[in-house]
């Protein structure tokens, strides 16, 4: 996309700013952008994330992921 496609009526954050605000990793934020879960625009290798889209995502209840290696079940 190009800068002309940017919605100038909406506030944007850079990926590092979104990381700091959300405490999510850059890889996860990029995944959310590519999947369409977050709205933003890619400029070269960088992303601009619409602040309102990030705030809506953060307000949604989410289930936490696994906290470590899974225990292998032992079937005898």
List keywords for this structure.
76 residues, alpha+beta, three-stranded antiparallel beta sheet, 3 strands, 36% helix, 16% strand
Structural commentary:
This protein is an alpha+beta fold. It is about 35% helix and about 15% strand. The chain has a 3-stranded antiparallel beta sheet. Strand 2 and strand 3 form a beta hairpin. The longest helix has 10 residues, at about 25-35. The mean pLDDT is about 85.
Uncertain segments of ≥5 residues (pLDDT<50)?
none
Major beta sheet, specifics? 3 strands, antiparallel
> What is Rg?
16 Å
- As a percent range, the share of strand residues is 15-25%
Order of helices and strands: EHHEEH
Structural class: alpha+beta
Rough outline: elongated
Q: Give the number of helices.
A: 3
Q: Which percent range fits the helix content? A: 25-40%
How do the strands and helices of this protein lay out in sequence?
Blueprint: E1 12-14, H1 15-22, H2 26-35, E2 40-43, E3 46-50, H3 51-59
Antiparallel strand pairs: 1-3, 2-3
Kindly summarize this structure in a few lines.
This protein is an alpha+beta fold and 76 residues long. The protein has helices at 15-22, 26-35, 51-59; strands at residues 12-14, 40-43, 46-50.
